[in-house]
């Protein structure tokens, strides 16, 4: 059975995922984009993966810099996610938030739920996307996390503590 992309996307729309801003800086310059296709791979060595469409304007920058920071967004950062979700000039994207510099030199979002500073250790191309395997060199976390999930084509806030029933 062959599955068309609308059927695939409609099904994927009901698979909830965290929302992340992936940033980079280095010889090819600074860039960032929003990604929900982010996943833990292994804890030895600590590794995650990020799927990046090769047609995205940011692709050559990530491809050349070989380092990135995965900034997982918190509730309240929906507009920042939309800004990094495409079409907006890069300086405008970064002007909308406060950034620190990570160990790799990549921008770390000051108020992120968690930030994973990484070197890109391996790249595998599948269809339209590159899977970037990222070895983590530093992690920072927010003290009182309130999560954000992309589900059913919109954002949903997750409170820090669900009331007990
Ligand atoms: N993996 C990716 O490249 C993703 C891209 N997006 C893009 O963000 C925009 C808004 O997202 P939605 O309203 O959720 O759009 P949508 O209705 O096009 O997609 C629904 C779901 O399908 C998956 N998806 C969408 N485009 C994909 C792609 N090119 N390759 C692999 N999986 C894909 C994602 O899980 C997405 O949440 C769209 O333009 C979409 O293409 C969103 C999520 C993941
Ligand atoms: C919620 C959300 C999740 C996204 N997830 C991904 C993703 O996992 N991988 C990807 O390549 N693009 C993803 N995108 C689209 C990119 O953010 C967008 O293509 C990127 O900002 C590049 O756009 P540009 O070519 O206009 O710069 C997502 C967009 C949104 C709004």
From TrEMBL:
Which Pfam families would you find in this protein's record?
Flavin_Reduct
Q: Which reaction does it catalyse?
A: FMNH2 + NAD(+) = FMN + NADH + 2 H(+)
GO biological process, any:
nitrogen utilization
Identify the InterPro entries for this entry.
Answer: Flavin_Rdtase-like_dom, NADH-dep_flavin_reductase, RutF, Split_barrel_FMN-bd
Name the source's superkingdom: Bacteria
Q: What class of enzyme is it?
A: oxidoreductase
What name goes with this protein? FMN reductase (NADH) RutF
